[in-house]
Write a structure and sequence with these properties.
Largest sheet of chain B: 16 strands, antiparallel
Number of domains of chain A: 1
Structural class of chain A: alpha+beta
CATH architecture of one domain in chain B: Sandwich
Structural class of chain B: alpha+beta
Strand content of chain B: 25-35%
Number of helices of chain B: 13
Distance between the termini of chain B: 55 Å
Radius of gyration of chain A: 15 Å
Distance between the termini of chain A: 45 Å
Shape of chain B: elongated
Oligomer: heterodimer
CATH class of one domain in chain B: Mainly Beta
Helix content of chain A: 25-40%
Number of helices of chain A: 3
Largest sheet of chain A: 3 strands, antiparallel
């Protein structure tokens, strides 16, 4: 039986590599350096905690942060105070959440522009 | 936010012809009415970077308010045998079967029963909430059980059985593991005591994989079993586990066994919703909600992987608590399709204000397909209804762990996805897994499908971008559907000078492939504007319109993998899996075949030397020799998403001209598994020149020809800059030339005839 293990990803993120966070801030979608790609696969493959997603409020224009539940049949958890008008901002917000959960270090208040 | 799920529904049938009747079955949990209107779909994609949703109102007698009720969906498969004197007359009895449980933590599950849940009457054999075989008998208001002491193992065969001795009132239940090695032995038994001389409820069906909730005529069921049930046996009198097991081992019952009441043989009538009793009383039954058939039994020897060659080893049925085939809803509206309506993608639009004061707009899709002999245009666009069904209610973004990594972006869900997450009773797609982790082999149109309609996403929505572009060009066309091609064959295609398949015609039956081959050989012209087409060997059920079947074999890009020995289509007996594995790679039909997924970014095409061949100059009229083609569209390129390449070893024709390619995908271009034997670090698009989308042309016979773009993303680039772009120009150049009956010259007539 072909299965995927929810805890399969094993890459360890170095919390001092803020250059990678900076790179993602610059180009949230597209081609990444190999090291950033490894960070993103760690985040996107197995995730951490319940998976964050975007709930589309208006096609191509507005999205709300949400979280998939642990079990089928349960509703999405939504965050009405977290509404985005830019996909890049949404990607960055979730990147920061995952960075902190995986490394224990917060980067959301750093100026990485 | 537009509420797209305040009303849900389905059309029956989903594919219709002018002059026939379509019924709409609707449900709303919150609204008592909505405004109904038939619309023809020009574009169903709400993306503001494209043309946006464009619907054409089609005045009909249905225009106006429609009253709505809530019609529930009762998911979960089971087998039902009508009550019969032989069942009612049971005194002492014994029951046993092989089981292969797949979800032991789903609560108590009934394997076989004559049991009413509301009154707690009858008897039932099943698994308790701990996964132990349990037998319950209710006599004169007393409910008595016996339960084995150990839990079974998931995905391990065990024989379970039970007996009731009416003279002593003794109950016995037992379970015996097939494989007792390595800690797998879960054999156990238990005894209990019940009142003597039980009388069983009349009128109650015997059920497999569930029991009856009540005595209602709908025969609603509960406590659905997840897993396989193989060779059930019912005997009068008290019999040991060994005797019951021997009864099951004898595939045909011993003649003259007066104790035998029923010997069900699920290996008979595998292609149907019926099951057969080989016992003396003809206690045949019917299946509800399409459990998976043609699955291996406890006696499967692996001497053949295909069920038609050893049917006696396929006497099991795999039941799921989330199977759904037909919602069996009442009809709310009915429409006789006017004979002068054009073929096309249609829906019943239902508009209202929801209970939160938000606008609600829901669509119930259907297709009007042009029929043989009724062509109104030189061009036919194929509605890829088999593919749309294969993806119907796809939940891979909700359930499949690596989807976000595969798509390389934060998942964006719509309101339909949020609804599907909560309402799994809608049933999922053939990309998804059941609650027990096994794959969905069947997909039915007799249920609401959320991603086959405007605003619904998916490849349906992508194909409407091609329809929108066709409408913008003024090129006249008919729409024909996959199931009509399957049913009518080449005669349907032969009405047209050119047939256009869309973004992702992935699922094909043998009859559909045969039709296209015959069409091409007879001078037909085929434009394939997509990627990953003609890929999976599929079946339409011969007698159940709107039901398709697919088995995921041991290769191909697939989100689940079938069990060993279960790659044969139950509907038809054909092998399933990739057409490439069945000796008919897509390259043979259309010159190109699937090579990679590319989700991180699109890629433009560049012209190749073959494009300067004067015989194909028509393709590039208005396009410069060095001009970059399609550096716009889905993720920035007309090449991408899923892409196809030429391979002469897989059947790309010698006459083929490879006129352009998109081949600069970088490491995000990921080869499909059937493209490599061993993995290494050089398989990605940054190092592998077989990760590419090839644009090709080749002549067939008698003036026929094929043109391909090899990319799903192609169609999404057509509307760029108000349709004024080189993707649009090339597509129009090709279509106009292909519908022009003038022959292609310079390819050698004798060769063409021979090809």
């Amino acid at each position: 039986m072909l299965t995927t293990d929810a805890s399969q990803a094993r890459y360890l993120i170095d919390p001092t590599r803020l250059d990678l966070a900076r790179e993602f801030r610059r180009v949230p979608r597209g081609h990444y350096s190999l090291e950033l790609q490894q960070v993103l696969y760690r985040m996107r493959w197995s995730g951490v905690g319940q998976r964050h997603v975007l709930l589309m409020l208006e096609p191509g224009r507005r999205w709300m942060l949400a979280q998939l539940p642990a079990r089928r049949g349960e509703p999405l958890k939504t965050f009405p105070e977290q509404v985005f008008t830019s996909i890049a901002d949404a990607e960055w917000t979730v990147f920061c959440l995952r960075w902190e959960l995986l490394t224990g270090e917060s980067i959301s208040n750093l100026n990485l522009d | 936010m537009l509420n797209t799920v305040a009303v849900i529904g389905y059309a029956a049938p989903i594919e219709v012809a002018c002059g026939s009747t379509v019924e709409f079955k609707l449900s709303s949990a919150t609204l008592s009415s909505a405004r109904a209107q038939i619309v023809k779909i020009r574009c169903g994609d709400p993306d503001p970077s494209g043309p946006g949703v464009q619907l054409i109102a089609m005045p009909s007698p249905l225009d106006g308010e429609v009253a709505l009720t809530h019609q529930p969906i009762h998911a979960g498969s089971c087998g039902l045998v009508d009550d019969a004197p032989a069942l009612r007359a049971l005194d002492s009895f014994s029951i046993g079967c092989w089981v292969w449980p797949t979800l032991l933590d789903a609560g108590a599950q009934t394997v076989v029963a004559r049991w009413r849940e509301d009154t707690q009457e009858g008897w039932r054999l099943g698994l308790d909430a701990q996964g132990r075989a349990s037998f319950t008998v209710a006599v004169a208001g007393h409910t008595c059980s016996a339960t084995a002491s150990r839990a079974l193992l998931e995905r391990e065969w065990a024989f379970i059985g039970a007996s009731y001795d009416s003279t002593s009132g003794q109950l016995e239940v037992f379970q015996r593991s097939l494989d007792v090695l390595g800690g797998r032995d879960r054999s156990a038994s238990d005894k209990g005591s019940a009142p003597r001389h039980a009388a069983w409820p009349a009128g109650l069906p015997l059920s497999f994989a569930a029991h009856l909730r009540d005595d209602g005529t709908l025969h609603l069921t509960a406590a659905h079993f997840n897993g396989k049930i193989d060779r059930p046996r019912l005997h009068a009198g008290v019999h040991s586990l060994e005797a019951l097991r021997a009864s099951a081992a004898a595939l045909r019952p011993v003649r003259g066994d007066t104790d035998l009441v029923a010997a069900w043989d699920f290996s008979e009538a595998i292609g149907s919703d019926r099951f057969v009793d080989r016992g003396p009383h003809g206690l045949h039954g019917v299946l509800r909600n399409a459990p998976t058939r043609a699955v291996t039994g406890a006696n499967w020897s692996a001497r053949t992987p295909h069920w038609t060659e050893a049917t006696e080893e396929y006497g099991a049925i795999h039941f799921h608590n989330d199977d759904i085939d037909d919602c069996r809803w009442n009809t709310d509206l009915s429409l006789d399709i006017p004979t002068d309506w054009p073929s096309g993608f249609y829906s019943l639009r239902l508009s209202a204000t929801d209970t939160d004061g938000q606008p609600a707009e829901s669509h119930v899709p259907f297709f009007i397909g042009a029929q043989p002999g009724q062509a109104r245009a030189r061009l036919a666009f194929v509605a890829s209804t088999a593919t749309f069904l294969a993806y119907s209610n796809s939940a891979i973004r909700l359930d499949l762990q690596p989807t976000e990594a595969m798509l390389e972006q934060l998942l964006v869900l719509g309101p339909d996805d949020a609804y599907l997450q909560e309402h799994r009773e809608l049933g999922l797609s053939t990309y998804d897994t059941h609650s027990d982790g096994s794959g969905w082999c069947y997909a039915s149109a007799a249920r609401p499908i959320l991603n086959m309609r405007p605003h619904g996403g998916g490849y349906y929505q992508m194909d409407t971008r091609v329809i929108d572009w066709l409408d913008s060009t003024g090129i006249s066309y008919d729409v024909i559907t996959d199931s009509d091609i399957h049913r009518h064959g080449a005669q349907l295609l032969a009405d047209y000078g050119c047939v256009l398949t869309g973004c992702h015609p992935e699922y094909y039956t043998q009859q559909m492939l045969d039709a296209f081959e015959t069409y091409q050989a007879g001078g037909g012209r085929h434009v394939y504007l997509g990627g990953n087409g003609f890929y999976w060997r599929t079946a339409f059920h011969p007698t159940k319109p709107g039901r398709i079947e697919i088995r995921r074999g041991l290769t191909g890009t697939r989100t689940w993998e079938g069990e060993p020995g279960e790659n044969g289509l139950s509907s038809t007996g054909e092998p399933s899996g990739l057409w490439r594995s069945n000796g008919r790679p897509p390259q043979r039909l259309v010159g190109v075949g699937f090579d990679a997924q590319v989700f991180d970014r699109g890629c433009a095409y560049r012209r190749l030397p073959d494009s300067l061949d004067p015989r194909v100059a028509f393709i590039f009229e208005g396009v410069g020799e060095q001009e970059v083609i399609g550096d716009f569209g889905l993720r920035g390129g007309a090449g991408g998403h899923e892409i196809d390449r030429v391979d002469t070893r897989l059947g790309s024709p010698p006459h083929l001209l490879r006129v352009a390619t998109a081949d600069d995908f970088g490491s995000g271009g990921l080869a499909t598994p059937e493209e490599f034997g061993v993995s290494h670090r050089g398989l990605g698009g940054d190092q592998n020149n077989q990760i590419r989308a090839d644009m090709t042309f080749f002549p067939t016979a008698r003036g026929g020809a094929v043109f391909t773009t090899g990319s799903i993303a192609w169609g999404m680039a057509l509307a760029h800059r108000g349709y004024d772009n080189n993707v649009s120009r090339i597509t129009a150049n090709v279509l106009r030339r292909f519908i022009d009956p003038a022959p292609f010259t310079g390819f050698g007539a004798s060769d063409e005839e021979a090809y």
